[in-house]
């Protein structure tokens, strides 16, 4: 151990100048080496002379177009290069911050804003070494997306597998603000929605969720519902819910997305108990791993989301 202490102590006295010596040897020019090292050329030249004097050996031969290594200089370079070069590269890697692994979760705007964002900080905290990103679309495509690792979307419901599971089924009811319900006592009549403004989410004909048309059709003619009056359309479900909370009309409310609004009373069932229908479809929010060979981290995030929504 004593010998190691001595060798390290000796090397420490010359370490900086030995690194500069290797830089000069690689560049073949004092001017270029000085520029890289952030020194003036005279200062670098003086340090090389001081190193030669301390070692008692001539290391560099000054020539017209630069510098050349003497025999002793070449021997010193051979002795230092593999070790100092590796040490310099290792230190450079140490200085660079580790690049975080990333995982992308894709879902629709409604699920993201009303249900997923409230738990997103807890998800990130559960995986501090993993960068988790949320990619939102109005209607995520069913085909694999190279950007995404996990997808949560409304699609036909089926039994869970090792790579897919249903977070909750599609159950939909008509909702409005308490003030709107109080201002429209006709909501208790046999034909409760006739003439009332219906707030809807604009969507393509093939959207995999209830629309007012499909919801009213499934409710059936025996309920006496004829489709309401004016339609107020938004391209964001978040805006649909905000409009309903502001008393602009009646909206379709997805259980699992609006539960917190029902609990606080910001939204209430629009139809009286006798007529109120909470309709369920064969669809649901499915969580799916998109990789054919998911790694441990992806499986862990998948399990976390599944357990959080099934609890």
UniProtKB/TrEMBL annotation:
<keyword id="KW-0238">DNA-binding</keyword>
<dbReference type="Pfam" id="PF03466">
    <property type="entry name" value="LysR_substrate"/>
</dbReference>
<dbReference type="InterPro" id="IPR000847">
    <property type="entry name" value="LysR_HTH_N"/>
</dbReference>
<dbReference type="InterPro" id="IPR036390">
    <property type="entry name" value="WH_DNA-bd_sf"/>
</dbReference>
<dbReference type="InterPro" id="IPR005119">
    <property type="entry name" value="LysR_subst-bd"/>
</dbReference>
<dbReference type="InterPro" id="IPR058163">
    <property type="entry name" value="LysR-type_TF_proteobact-type"/>
</dbReference>
<feature type="domain" description="HTH lysR-type">
    <location>
        <begin position="17"/>
        <end position="70"/>
    </location>
</feature>
<dbReference type="Pfam" id="PF00126">
    <property type="entry name" value="HTH_1"/>
</dbReference>
<keyword id="KW-0804">Transcription</keyword>
<keyword id="KW-0805">Transcription regulation</keyword>
<dbReference type="InterPro" id="IPR036388">
    <property type="entry name" value="WH-like_DNA-bd_sf"/>
</dbReference>
<comment type="similarity">
    <text>Belongs to the LysR transcriptional regulatory family.</text>
</comment>
<protein>
    <submittedName>
        <fullName>LysR family transcriptional regulator</fullName>
    </submittedName>
</protein>
């Amino acid at each position: 151990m004593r010998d190691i202490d001595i060798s390290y102590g000796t090397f420490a006295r010359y370490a900086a100048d030995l690194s500069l010596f290797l830089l000069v040897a690689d560049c073949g020019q004092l001017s270029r080496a000085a520029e890289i090292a952030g020194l003036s050329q005279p200062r670098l030249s003086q340090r090389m002379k001081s190193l030669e004097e301390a070692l008692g050996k001539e290391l560099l031969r000054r020539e017209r177009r630069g510098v050349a290594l003497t025999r002793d200089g070449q021997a010193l370079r051979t002795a230092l290069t593999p070790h100092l070069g590796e040490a310099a590269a290792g230190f450079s890697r140490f200085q660079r911050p580790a690049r975080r692994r990333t995982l992308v979760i894709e879902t629709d705007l409604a699920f993201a804003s009303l249900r997923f964002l409230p738990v997103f900080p807890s998800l990130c905290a559960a995986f501090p070494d993993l960068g988790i990103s949320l990619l939102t679309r109005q209607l995520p495509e069913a085909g694999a997306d190279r950007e995404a690792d996990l997808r949560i979307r409304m699609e036909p419901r089926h039994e869970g597998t090792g790579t897919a599971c249903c977070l909750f089924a599609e159950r939909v009811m008509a909702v409005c603000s308490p003030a709107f319900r109080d201002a429209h006592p006709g909501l208790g009549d046999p034909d409760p929605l006739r003439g009332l403004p219906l707030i809807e989410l604009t969507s393509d004909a093939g959207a995999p969720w209830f629309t007012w048309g499909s919801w009213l059709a499934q409710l059936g003619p025996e309920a006496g519902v004829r489709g309401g009056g004016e339609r107020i359309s938004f391209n964001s479900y978040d805006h649909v819910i905000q409009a309903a909370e502001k008393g602009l009309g009646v909206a379709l409310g997805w259980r699992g997305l609006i539960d917190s609004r029902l609990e606080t009373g910001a939204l209430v069932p629009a139809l009286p108990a006798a007529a109120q229908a909470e309709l369920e479809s064969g669809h649901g929010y499915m969580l799916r791993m998109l990789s054919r060979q998911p790694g441990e981290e992806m499986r862990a995030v998948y399990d976390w989301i599944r357990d959080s929504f099934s609890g």
